[in-house]
Design goal:
Thrombin, subunit H; 15 strands; alpha+beta; 9-stranded mixed β-sheet; 328 residues
Length: 328
């Protein structure tokens, strides 16, 4: 167990970063890690349904990614829309910030607005008389490490096949990208929602990881989902965002999930174990990331890093569009 940031680091060859998805969603490879023994197996995601037991429920995050990256017409700025309190009001990260002072007029998609406030963390509040349509002018905010602009194919492949219609997330719940409609139809599942925000991907800047603070993200659990989760004999969390909801949501006196809408800023890291998740399906995460720390809380830092080293030897594909890992 370690609380030092440097102990969650590893070196990844650049050619193992998956810059595009596999030709078919379920063709991804799947490393299976047995957390009690450290034993490792190598499979394909298409085999995932055969690994389930009677009484299992896969809990999915059905968030949809909004095309939240916007290039302003005047001045030349790049916006990342992180929240829309109303149709006309956007809260954004803006680059370069020195050109986005309070009171400055801005034109986005031909619509004129004004930067009315700079928030304490640096976000800009922009007010429009008539807001532009993000679905028309926006780009999907692909992670910078992909080293490319979004393309037409990303509109499909950077969403899960079960994403709900309304879009509020800034990033995809990537463990779910491997599911096809056919696989989804043959596995018992429940859908919750966590609107993935920028906090999930903010770098940890303190060597003592306990000093890191997560941004707050909104979630929802419907009565149908709560009922299915409470009836499960084994809960399989699909993705770290699902884990964050299950580990932080309100529960009744018997420990059962309560249907609710709320928010969480939970930061899961060793030595605290996961209390409400039995199995985790997840992708391979960036060095020193909060997501790698969450996975380490599930299986232990040493075993997780050993599994990552094995995946690199076996030439697995890493990160958003890469292969996956099943921790059982």
């Amino acid at each position: 167990m370690s609380l030092r940031l440097r102990d969650y680091d590893y070196e990844l060859p650049d050619e193992l970063i998956a810059r595009y998805p596999a030709a078919k969603r379920d063709e991804s490879r799947m490393l299976v890690l047995h957390r009690e023994t450290g034993a490792i197996e190598h499979h394909r995601f298409a085999e995932f349904p055969a690994m389930l037991r009677p009484g299992d429920v896969c809990v999915l995050n059905d968030a949809r990614v909004t095309p939240a990256r916007v290039l302003a017409d005047e001045p030349k700025l790049e916006l990342l829309v992180i929240e829309r309190p109303s149709v006309q009001r956007w809260i954004c990260w803006v680059k370069p910030g020195r050109r986005a002072r309070a009171g400055r007029d801005i034109v986005v998609g031909g619509k004129r607005g004004r930067i009315i406030e700079v928030l304490p963390e640096g976000e800009r509040v922009i007010e429009f008389a008539e807001a532009p349509d993000l679905e028309v002018i926006g780009h999907l905010p692909l992670p910078p490490y992909l080293g490319r602009e979004d393309e037409a194919s990303d509109r499909d492949r950077y969403q899960t096949v079960y994403a709900r219609r309304d879009a509020r997330a800034i990033a995809a719940p990537t463990a779910g990208l491997h599911f096809t409609p056919e696989i989804l139809a043959c596995v018992p599942h429940a859908r919750i929602t966590l609107d993935v925000g920028i906090g999930t991907f903010q770098p940890v800047k303190t060597d003592d990881i306990t000093q890191h603070r997560m941004h707050r993200e909104q979630f929802e659990i419907t009565p149908t989902a709560a009922s299915a989760i409470n009836a499960a004999q084994r809960i399989i969390a699909v993705g770290t965002t699902t884990v964050r909801v299950l580990e932080s949501c309100a529960r009744d006196e018997l420990g059962g999930v309560i249907a609710q809408a709320g928010s969480t800023d939970i930061f899961i890291h060793p030595p605290a174990p996961l209390r409400h998740v039995d199995v985790l399906l997840t992708n391979f995460h960036l060095p020193k990331s909060t997501l790698l720390m969450l996975v380490s809380a599930m299986a232990g830092r040493e075993r997780v890093l050993a599994a990552y080293a094995d995946a690199m030897r076996e030439r697995y594909r890493f990160f958003t569009y890469g292969d996956c890992m099943l921790i059982i």
